[in-house]
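Technical note accompanying the year-one report. For the benefit of new consortium partners, we illustrate the data format agreed upon in the data management plan: each record pairs a sequence with a structure-token string. No post-processing was applied to the example shown here.
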Amino acid sequence: MSITLKRQLTNDEKDTILERFGRKCFATGHPISPNEPLHFDHIKAFASSGQSELDNIAPMCEIHNKAKGMFSLYDFRIKLRLDDFFSKGDKQTLGNLLKYMAENNDIQSFGNKIVIYNEKDQMILESGSKKLSYNLYECPITGWKYFYATLPVEIINSDDSDDNSIGLQPRYLILEKTFGLFRHFQNHPVLQPSIGRVIDNKILIFDGQHKIASLLWTGRREFECKIYLNPDLRLLNQTNISAHDKFSQTRFYSSIMVGKLGTEFGAEFNQYKNSEDEQGKNEAGFIRFINSLQNETRGEINKKFRNFLYNMIINDGKNKLSKYVSSGNRGSDEYPITIDMLSKSIFTHFLYREPVEDLIGTESYLREYEIQNIIKLMNMLYDLAMNSWNPKAGSNDPHQIKLRRIFSSKSIMAWSDKVYGAICGKLELQDSKERQMPFYRIIDSEDEKKIKTVIEKLIAWPKWSSPINSDIDRVLSDNVKAVGDWMKNNGLTTGSLMGAPE
């Protein structure tokens, strides 16, 4: 959905913008021909608090303006560049990206040779006219020398294999991870340095290539690094591979999810946990393991796994809404919400209910964050509405009538779809995979505020407070589609929940 300007630009304002950018599409820089429609849009999306000021407006061609969706023009432009880069092949490394950026004049050079030598416990590095010095350290285990430095892009490269040497780079770049980190690092610091080594007077990076790759797209041209001087190649290679694979098991055993799975599935999970698996442990592997035992049908196992996820959310002590969730399939005045209602509404849209391939205990495994994100959403519903639920209120109590309308089964199933669309818009989730797993991510406080504004607009919809026996009471007994259509026709839409004018 393309975001429209909050107000119409005057012809003079359009001329001012065209003087600044030329008649070129901001997304790719291609010329917009005189017979093409000319669009003007926010560089920073209106949904992300971008303002309708001239400094935040740029020209766009019609095709790219429609394709942009909720991305800022800046993010959308980088997304197109990344799509182009990854279209070159499916085994791209940091070295390939540096070459791509040099060919497109994003950087002047990379991988240049250096002069490097020791001088009184200092590491001296010379590159061109620059002479830099760094403290030198020694590993107490291996005796290897290393130093920390902020290094310019001109003297780094990826530790890839070539005709003369075997590289230590064990992973290829992933499009989604690179783009996600690019967006993350626009507002967050880098916590750990990338790691490399010196070989043949070159600095080669073998760990942290995604960090550098994403930072390059933010405009960063210097990177925090830890550099080894004369390591034993075989041992360093083994250590690097172990860090990416086997030693992730340390965090696996300390994962909350491991304890929960062990409690729910008992001996089956303990058997899987102790099995030899060089690829590491994950939810999908566990489900495949259970299937191999053939003690239950695949359908029974999948249902059991989903119920496990539901219980993780409902039984969490921080979930305020759970006090109103019925243990059975029938609601009551004391417990108006059922698990069946949640499974067909909030859980359907915000919980990824299939087992994931991400290794448990690694940074890519975000199930525990997803669970907590859903609990925060449910707590917003509690704080903004259900905290005043009164099962003893009379049938004519206006506030209780409003709450019954909001949380009736057909109603919650209908509005949860609209809330899902609005939250995806607010979080700028565009890819189908992102929208499939909207809460399977780290959501910061700013994004929580955006989500809360959606829930606030939901609860404030005027139709909830209609007089007794209004149309809403008749409609809410109809099928979910009819309820959703009626809501849409009466102003409860994805757009209205995002703050678009009705």
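Partners are asked to follow this layout when depositing records. Residues 88-244 form a domain with the Conserved hypothetical protein from pyrococcus furiosus pfu- 392566-001, ParB domain fold (CATH 3.90.1530.10).
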